[in-house]
Amino acid sequence: MTPTPPTATAHRPGLRRAMLALMAGPVLALSLAAGTAPAAAQSLDQLRANGQVCERPDGLLHVLSGGPGVQQTVDQINQQRLSTYQQVARDTNTKIEQVRIISGEKLRAKYGGCP
User: Fold this and answer.
1) Residues 87-94: contacts with CB within 8 Å, 24+ apart?
2) pLDDT tens by residue, 56-68
3) Mean pLDDT of successive 10-residue segments in the chain (115 residues)?
4) Predicted local confidence at residue 21, as pLDDT
5) Contact between residue 65 and residue 51 where contact means Cβ atoms under 8 Å apart
6) Per DSSP, which regions of 1-115 are E strands?
7) How far is residue 91's CA from residue 85's CA, in Å, rounded to a whole number?
8) Which of 78, 110, 92 is closest to 17 using CA atoms?
9) How far apart are the C-alpha atoms of 45 and 87, rounded to whole Å?
10) The predicted structure's pLDDT at residue 17
11) What pLDDT was estimated at residue 108?
């Protein structure tokens, strides 16, 4: 069995735990947006499946198609993500840019990135 190469989070165990917790951020953001945005009737998974949004390398969503309702939903999710990233950065004494890059890598690995 070959050893797995170290990742950016391997050097900071606290950051690794925080990043795992961070993955819950988009789910929380969607649930917060569900009561306010017209397009929020569609889940983030539906928006992804329909090709309307994609994951950027910086840990934020990008709108590929759809109307103002989709943009409003994405803006709300991105605001929640940024808030979560800031909290993780504070909690782990890490720069927010590093948190965003690691998140972007994880989200793109799981859902694919923007074309």
Assistant:
1) 88/15, 88/18, 88/19, 88/21, 88/22, 91/14, 91/18, 92/12, 92/14, 92/15, 92/18, 94/12, 94/15
2) 999 999 999 998 9
3) 49 54 44 40 86 97 94 95 97 97 97 93
4) 53
5) yes
6) 53-55, 61-63
7) 10
8) 92
9) 25
10) 52
11) 97
Residue 16: in which H helix or E strand, if any?
Answer: helix 13-22
Task: Please state the separation of Cα 38 from the chain's center in Å.
Answer: 21
Q: What pLDDT does 43 receive?
A: 86
Tokens of 106: 């994880």
Residue 8, phi then psi, degrees to nearest 5: -60, -30
Partnered with residue 54 across adjacent β-strands are 62
Q: What is the pLDDT of residue 23?
A: 46
User: What does the chain come to in residues?
Assistant: 115
Helices (H) and strands (E) in the chain, counts: 5, 2
Query: HSE-up of 64 (CA within 13 Å, CB side)?
Result: 13
C-alpha–C-alpha distance, residues 78 and 72, integer Å: 10
